[in-house]
Design goal:
CATH topology: Aminopeptidase
Number of domains: 1
CATH class: Alpha Beta
Radius of gyration: 16 Å
CATH architecture: 3-Layer(aba) Sandwich
């Protein structure tokens, strides 16, 4: 039986909720497949988030890992392509740390690519009528930190698991009274379910356009 690990983050930067955690909970609650889904809420803390993920990978031994984070200001679900070996925090994390130009993993490669079928996932999500895009950068905050740690753990282990990262917009309650775009938790969850479904059905990704000019 296929085992799946979905992760989201705790709230940060003054927010009361984090839609990434709400959305993965919604996916697990409504998933109709035979796969076993495990959930993990990660701290928005550089010093502990990667270690918490690594411990969960050892305990759960998943076949598929999809980590999810909040990207306030984006209007679409963003399927991330690449994680880079840099922590460069514009704001402090929830533990007060604000690393600048530090490696996620000392001596690690400059970057890792997602091993999810990102193009097939994009097709599946857009077929469900949900705005989605391939993102070429997961930033340099804790989302990228976790994404890089995930791919490093998978690349240096022997599990053969596939993994990647997805960013979701603000929820409507977070965007209320602002000009930020938003998306309901239910729609985010439907998008994540589509990404998971595409991953389970595509060992080899589709070869279609998904690049960017800038």
């Amino acid at each position: 039986m296929t085992t799946v690990l979905l992760t989201g983050f705790e709230p940060f930067d003054g927010q009361m909720t984090n839609p990434s955690w709400s959305a993965v909970q919604e996916v697990a609650a409504n998933w109709a497949g035979d796969e076993t889904i495990h959930l993990l809420e990660l701290p928005v803390v550089f010093g502990t988030s990667g270690d918490a993920l690594a411990q969960a990978l050892r305990e759960v031994e998943p076949d598929v890992v999809i980590c999810v984070g909040q990207a306030g200001g984006r209007s679409a679900v963003a399927i991330e392509r690449v994680a880079i070996n840099v922590d460069d925090a514009r704001i402090p994390d929830n533990g007060g740390a604000q690393p600048v130009d530090e490696p996620v993993v000392d001596g690690g490669p400059a970057a890792y690519f997602s091993t999810l079928p990102i193009k097939a996932a994009l097709v599946e999500v857009t077929m469900r009528g949900i705005p989605a895009e391939i993102s070429q950068s997961a930033g340099t905050f804790t989302c990228n930190h976790v994404f890089y740690r995930l791919m490093h753990e998978l690349a240096t282990g022997d599990s053969g698991a596939r993994g990647g990262f997805v960013h979701v917009p603000f929820s409507p309650e977070q965007a209320a009274g602002t000009r930020h775009p938003s998306m309901s938790i239910e729609v985010m969850a439907e998008a994540l379910a589509g990404i998971l479904a595409a991953t389970l059905t595509h060992e080899v990704d589709l070869r279609i356009g998904g690049g960017a000019l800038n």
